[in-house]
Amino acid sequence: MPMLDTGIQAIEGSVTKALTQFGSSFELEDFTPQVVERGPVTPQFLTTLLTGIDREDFMTSNTYKYDAMTRTSVLPSGKQFTGFGPRANKDKPKTYRWGIPSFGISGNVEVADYANKRQVGTENTVDSEMIHLERLDRKMAEAWDLFNEQQLLTLLTTDTNDVAGGPFDEYNFYTEIVGGSRAVADIDFSDDTVDQMEQLRAQKKLLKEEAIRAGEINSKIIVLCGSNFFKEVLTIEKNEGLARDLKGTYDFASQEVTSDTIGTQTFEVDNFVSELCGLHFFDHTMDIGGVSIGADDAYMIPVGAEQFIRKAYAPAMTREYANTEALSAYSWVNIDDRNGITRWEESNFLMSLVNPRLIRKMTVA
pTM above 0.85? Predict the structure, then answer.
């Protein structure tokens, strides 16, 4: 008796066949273990540039307290040979005291999350608690990365720390330390009679003087730009109206703007070093939780400065950690046979702008 040709063949590789019931009938179904994923972008741009262990303070209380001293200059004056000259004025220190807020996040993996379920990307492998715990760990780690970046972005753009809705004080560090409100330099890119690069050089000179006063002589000055500001400086750098051969590092009239990955995630940031004013411009268009640099705004800041932005930690208020030197983060876990595994984490820190004079804000006039 001849064999009946069903037209069904075994397929090797990543695609398998299984019987799946559709209504009252059974039909063959193809399955591939590939999982289509989509996750959040977690830029580490500001975190990479502005934070580090040398810019952190670990306290034993929830108060960040430090002294500041502003040294003034004095010049000699003419005197008689029997005189002494004018008295040098005495510089007085000042103490600043800020409260450190607390931030936290928690998560739970319950039995219902994996009971009677298959693993994602498998045909019939039983789901497990460990897989869900790994997802929770990754989600919470990404949350802290984004939150830290948002804190820095808020501080740069508002001069104020972000308490994220917590019952803590917000401080405008510019107002508290310098007094008044921050001045904004208008750069008029529409006026052909104005040398905009000269205006930017003037802002760089002012910032360098402040960096020298603060002892930050090894810092590098960069400019974080909104989209419109970056477009304007890039247009000038193209030198499209130049009536001679371009002699410089870039020829943006015929090449794309450079992009670099800065941080732990593969997230490229458009940037270039200006041949006309010597500044390093970055196109910072990232929006993190509704916080971003305005399209027309730009912030000139020093990278590598130790007394510019500092992160002060406070210990957790528990029997084990109270009055001890703070850790950067804390985590706890509770295991219950019915309610599953619950994890909660906290980090108690203040992102403080200890020297707000080291920011020059500019905008497209």
Answer: no
